[in-house]
Amino acid sequence: MPIIRTRLIWIIVALVFIACGGIYWSESSKGNAVEEKIRSRYGQMRTAISTGDVVAAEVLFAPGSFTLENFSRLGTFAKPLRPDARIRISRSVARVYPTPVRHYGVIPGGDSVEMIEIGGGWFFTGKVNID
Description:
It is built from three helices and six strands, in the order αααββββββ. By secondary structure, it is an alpha+beta fold. The strands form two sheets. Strands 1-2-5-6 form a four-stranded antiparallel sheet. The protein is elongated. The relative contact order is 0.14.
């Protein structure tokens, strides 16, 4: 009887791990589509910054967030995205880390630019987090 009980426990544990893996895979697939939207929007802002196109940049900001100061700040901190750039999404707020770093080789960090989701679109808030 103990052998059957042990096998049953291992089968249940394996099924739980498989279910968790499926949920993780499903969520990460959704995240990739959202990340692509954010990367695209970030690329549009980089183009506006590099050309100095204030009008094009204004429509990329969340309503009420655009100021010349915010535009200038993004010009300083919204660096071109490196291949290892990270995007952290929490509900309707995203932080883009264009040049991520690892403190002590382990702890993720780096300067980040904040974006928010409004009606399915991603917009810049003008906030930057300096690390």
